[in-house]
Design goal:
Number of helices: 23
CATH architecture of one domain: 3-Layer(aba) Sandwich
CATH topology of one domain: Rossmann fold
CATH class of one domain: Alpha Beta
Distance between the termini: 66 Å
């Protein structure tokens, strides 16, 4: 181990960032008993009953952060498996797909046998798997994809399925008390696939034979049907399936949402019955939509990956996942701008931190390799408001102001800024422009605005953001606003047509003092800026 890594590992032992806390728990697991095959396996699960959303991404991103922290603390090699439960039966028709009504005829069929409504893949399951892999690849995650359909049908899980069958009564004993009376009467960990229709059947198991490796059920005509539990002829109810997977693959770490705590506990009991130790992990809080309701793949009330990336950078999405995973958070479009700018702030501080400080900075957890160098210091919110005051969707217009503020900046030399310009214009076009609502200033506000014009005109052309911000503050203090927040709110509503806005000093430097003076004079003249 090199001296640099040794030093980093020493700091990592005390790092407070949550991925290191998780990693230290995993390190303790192997102090006396190293992994059987010498490799530590991290797993994430995906149910492809709907298009991948940001909740799916969250699990992979956060698990990757723990994996990197673990690699800093331990020399044990690691793997990450992204497991898709694509053999699950289609239980309901998703509301956010084209031609969904036609899918009703395929209810109960394994997702990999449901026709793809998008017409691009051999099944709905294959389509959603491809979408999952595409965005994981786009983010550069190091992972191995595993399909439940392939794992069941190939025989990879056969030994573990026979272990479930051999421990059938013990598993039923721990599972039945967690179910209601009606479900208890019909429950079995095995879900046979109907030999004639291919449907995943939720039917009572009338007999099981560990020696033969089979289970029996009655079809709709009352005839007893015997099927093997191996070779893809049965799948497992998901809690038993989860435990079987941990047992079969020797999974050492998997996290889950807070709503699955009881499921984690039950799967852990089943895993122990099978003779394995359940993985380490923690329960993260759920994402909420704009109304404070849990997001759902089938309802489509969350953001898709593509939607976030239309307005925000990949790094901003990773930052959103890093921050406070144990706290429920709104996952809506309006959180994007702040996370873009927060990422830029963390990036700007990173290089000046010592090794211990860098381990606490989100940048270390977001970038597996060296992070990019900070660029101009122009943030997303400033660009949004520049687009708003210019009422433009043309990148060239914004770059005209940018190059005056930072003469050496250009799309070719400032790729981060160039991306921010495009993203901010998308956000402006879709969210800001349709909701702009200018108002005329009150008499007192008009006097304050006229005073601000005089103050700005008295400043030298090269005045910096701090000097301008100070003048804006001083003007507000001279008038009878209840607090300075009302003064700035008046500036935003009269000049930008919105309730919130940028730090005025920084904005005016970028937009220009003379241009700002002209804008204020237009408002004082009664001109409708929204016309």
């Amino acid at each position: 181990m090199t001296s640099d890594l040794a030093t980093l590992r020493e700091f990592a032992e005390d790092a407070k960032a949550w991925p290191f806390k998780e990693a230290r728990n995993l390190v303790k697991r192997f102090e006396k008993n190293p992994p059987k095959n010498g490799t530590v396996l991290f797993e994430t699960g995906y149910g492809p009953s709907g298009l991948p959303h940001i909740g799916t991404f969250a699990e992979v991103a956060r698990t990757t952060m723990v994996r990197r922290a673990f690699a800093t603390l331990s020399d044990l090699p690691t793997r990450l498996v992204a497991f898709s439960d694509d053999m699950d039966g289609l239980r309901s028709v998703p509301t956010n797909i084209p031609g969904g009504e036609a899918m009703a005829a395929h209810l109960g069929m394994p997702l990999t046998r449901v026709p793809d409504p998008f017409g691009t893949h051999e099944s709905f399951g294959h389509h959603n798997n491809a979408r999952l892999r595409a965005f994981l690849d786009a983010f550069g995650f190091d992972y191995e994809f595993k399909s439940a359909t392939e794992a069941y049908q190939s025989g990879e899980l056969d030994a573990a399925l026979l272990d479930i069958l051999n421990n059938y009564d013990k598993i039923m004993a721990v599972t039945l008390p967690t179910l209601g009376p009606e479900r208890q009467a019909t429950y079995s960990p095995f879900l046979p696939l109907c030999p004639s229709t291919g449907q995943v059947l939720q039917v009572p198991i009338t007999a099981h034979d560990a020696d033969a490796g089979t289970v029996c059920y009655e079809d709709e005509n009352g005839k007893s049907i015997e099927v093997p539990v191996t070779g893809g002829h049965c799948k497992l109810q998901w809690k038993a399936d989860w435990a079987m997977r941990w047992h079969a693959l020797d999974v050492h770490y998997e996290m889950a949402g807070k709503d699955l705590i009881s499921s984690v506990e039950l799967s852990g009991k089943i895993c122990r019955i099978l003779g394995s130790t359940p993985p380490e992990g923690f329960n993260y809080e759920l994402f909420l939509d704009e109304n404070g309701e849990k997001i759902s793949k089938s309802r489509g009330n969350g953001l898709t990956i593509d939607e976030w990336l239309r307005y925000g950078t990949r790094e901003s999405l990773s930052l959103y996942m890093f921050a406070t995973p144990r706290r429920a958070k709104r996952l809506h479009f309006d959180v994007i701008p702040r996370h873009v700018d927060d990422y830029l702030t963390h990036l700007g501080k990173f290089a000046d931190l010592d090794a211990a400080g860098q381990l606490e900075n989100p940048i270390w957890h977001i970038h597996p390799d060296a992070p990019p160098k900070p660029e101009t210091g122009i943030g997303y919110a400033i660009l949004l408001n520049l687009a708003s005051v210019c009422n433009t969707e043309d990148p060239a217009v914004l770059w005209g102001f940018i190059t005056r503020y930072v003469p050496d900046a250009a799309p070719e030399t400032a790729p981060i800024l160039d991306q921010l310009v495009a993203l901010a214009l998308n956000y402006y076009s879709d969210f800001v422009k349709p909701n702009k609502n200018y108002r005329q200033p009150s008499d007192m506000e008009a006097k304050a605005l006229a005073d601000l014009v005089s103050s700005l005109e008295a400043l030298p052309p090269e005045a910096d953001a701090e000097a301008i911000q100070s003048e804006v503050y001083e003007v507000g203090k001279r008038y009878e606003f209840e607090n300075l927040r009302d003064w700035f709110k008046a500036l935003y509503e009269t000049l930008l047509g919105q309730e919130q806005g940028p730090r005025m000093g920084s904005f005016i430097v970028l937009y220009g003092i003379s241009e700002t003076v002209t804008l204020i004079k237009r408002v004082l003249a009664g001109e409708d800026l929204g016309a």
